[in-house]
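Hey L., structure's done. Input below.
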Amino acid sequence: MTGKTEKTPLRHILTLAVSVSALGGFFILNCAVKAPEILESERRAAAEFPKLTAGTLLSGEFMRGFEDFAADSFAFRDAFRTIKAFSVFEIFRQTDKSGLYRDDLVGAGKFAAPTETDMRRTARKLKSVADSLGGLNVYVSVIPDKSAFAGRKYPGFDMKLAESIIAEELPDARYIDLVPELGADSFYKTDLHWDQSKIAGVADKIAAAAGGAPPPDGDAVPPLFQTRPAGAFCGVYRGQLALPMPPDTMIYMTPSPGTVTRYLDDKTLSWEEGEMYDLEAFAGRDPYDIFLRGARALIAIENPDAGEGARELYLFRDSFASSLAPLLIPYYSKITLIDLRYIDFRVLPSLVEFSPGADALFLYSSQILGSPDILNAG
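Output:
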């Protein structure tokens, strides 16, 4: 009996040919295209090709590293990310993409909820610092996550819980509630930070609660500043979201010309005078670095035109204070910004002279309250 050979259907052959061509084409394309060093849309360094050794191969470290490298260097990566984001939000109608939310009122954001344990650990670290500041007036304030002003409820920051923890762990510090001075339009829609041009009320509230001296001419804060547009601002969430999103407009406010700003050089440990606003940084990877040159351990701002009775302010802070501090200048003779993420509190006495009777404000955002390990204190 003669066996009959069945012919492979043409559609199967075409499917195989298309699949091989597509895979082969992407393989050749990815080999030809140079892997990026920086992912501009996400403001981070791309994963590098992992080191291939017998040890990394057997442990699985090589394959894990290669997966990250392949994902970061894939051709048309941003286009595929946009397609995925569109599918997540518009087709499957999910509320978030890998923890990143999109809201009509406040824009994009990672509305994560820090744990009570982490917030309590952070508060205890701040207390250890506050207890060492003998003779100073100590204040604490929390910057809420912008999800508090969103159009719907998200699993975000619990402000009431944070306030209760602060009250329990720092009973001797006076709490300044900033929530009434903020709203959905106080924050950039494409970034986590607040908009300097929308937080004059925050500066007023802090100065009034902490006893800052009134401006010498008795006017409110805004008339003492010149408002200048920096340009279109695309925050970090815009690139992470991978969807078309209108940029924000960044505006910065300059105080009186007599103000002097000094920065501590972390290598020489010497103070160097510089501009308050780094306009060149606006064209860099993180435009928010326009405010006080971005991440710095110590910054001192002196106001020679301070009114009679003006005190000094020691501002223990994160990045939000970079845009707030200039608005506090009319109320203080000197503001020293201290970022405990970049300097250990134990070395501060050798670099900063704390004046008795001055104000000390611990001003932190929800992200820092939930990350106790990044503060060099306690």
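The chain has two domains: 29-102, 107-374. The mean pLDDT is 87.

-- N.
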